[in-house]
Amino acid sequence: MTRSIDDASYQPVPLDHVERIPQVPLTFETRSEDDMRARARRFHEEMSLRRTVRDFAPDPVDEAIIRECIATANTAPSGANKQPWHFGVITSAEIKRQVREAAEDEERQFYAGLHGVDWVEEVAKLGTSWEKPFLEIAPYLIVVFRQSYGLTKDGLKEKHYYVPESCGLAAGLLIAALHNAGLATLTHTPNPMGFLRDTLGRPGHEKAIMIVVTGYPAAHATVPQISKKPFDELVTFY
What we know:
Blueprint: E1 19-21, E2 24-27, H1 33-47, H2 63-73, E3 85-90, H3 93-114, H4 118-124, H5 134-137, E4 140-147, E5 149-151, E6 157-159, H6 163-181, E7 184-188, H7 194-200, E8 206-215, H8 231-234
Antiparallel strand pairs: 1-2, 3-4, 4-8, 5-6, 7-8
Helix pairs in contact: 2-6, 3-7
């Protein structure tokens, strides 16, 4: 087979968890379609229970759980496999306080209408405001950074591809993994977010795209009543 890239740079390894069955296409596992449908349904049912939570308990969470969930996020596909993301995990009470103060300062201006009233009116229906106590209460703040370029071991710039798309995929897997582990989550995107890079001492080629707040929900936690689009409205089969 003719390859379009330098063969010396391509080092394939076996897809060792795949079984070949005579006259059956290559599949990730030997499963019946009934089993596949059941697994798809169970996963949908599990993820349909995921809600954005704004009331967190201060109870500690085993760091091993967070590590596994971030490792899951790192399995996301990325342009040219550059993995253009970095996760800043905050547990320090002092840093969480700094993040809350900076975020609320930005949000206070935002909610004052300096960026338009449409957004403020929409999120008011969801019970949110400029006050962000969860940034101090939740045991973990995971800041997702996107890297506009990489650095080689020699300190040279290395181009990254499809950075926003790649980081969005990784963030989605992180949220799914945290929910699957039994933790509540909230995605917070203060605008602007430059203070996060400064607070955490990250390099200039990294930009924060969101804070994933996670932990156990508070006993009194509530969520707004919402609905999802009917299936026929969100998909078209061609």
